[in-house]
Amino acid sequence: LNALMEMFGHLNFTVLGFPCNQFGLQSPGKVNHEMLNILKYVRPGGGFVPKFPVFSKVEVNGLNEDPLFTFLKESLPFVNPVIGDIKKFYWSPIKVNDIRWNFEKFLITANGMPFKRFKEYVTMVIESEFKLTLFQEQKT
Fold first, then answer.
1. 3-state secondary structure at position 135
2. Cα–Cα separations (whole angstroms), residue 30 to 34, 36, 57, 87, 108
3. CB 52 within 8 A of CB 5
4. CA 84, 88, 90, 92 torsion: positive or negative?
5. Any signal peptide, and if so, which residues (predicted)?
6. What is the pLDDT of residue 71?
7. What is the rounded CA–CA span in Å between residue 116 and residue 114?
């Protein structure tokens, strides 16, 4: 994600990070500075510092999901009916459009419209989609 910020940060683009502990309980920190220390020293570690805003932990699925993620999931439904191993999910109810795992991404246009949804590890695909989105917005 830092690489995307380096490539496109000078344009009308930013990455927003929303920690969530609903996937295998992999984000146990309670407050934001704990999350930043986990990123810096544990995962990915090596002194990693995000070049984008990292917000407080939220729930992205279930009864207590943040309204932003309700909007994103309704706007960009997931097309794969296979949800995954529900033993690793910590929310209820589980719905077909739920975010499936950490680092799932949503590309939002500059005017705030959801454009594309990506699985967790697709940085190169996001790069090409962002270029396409930017080109389309410049034409209008």
1. helix
2. 7, 11, 8, 22, 28
3. yes
4. positive
5. none
6. 97
7. 6
Is the pLDDT confidence value at 28 over 80? no
- DSSP notation for 50-75: -SS-B------SSTT--HHHHHHHHH
Tokens of 76: 């960009």
109 token code pair? 């246009």
What tens digit of pLDDT does each residue of 90-135 get?
A: 898 988 899 988 888 898 888 889 988 887 666 667 777 777 777 6
* E-state strands within 19-113: 105-108
Say whether 29 sits in a helix, a strand or coil: coil
**48 phi-psi bin (left φ>0, alpha ψ -120 to 50, beta other):** beta
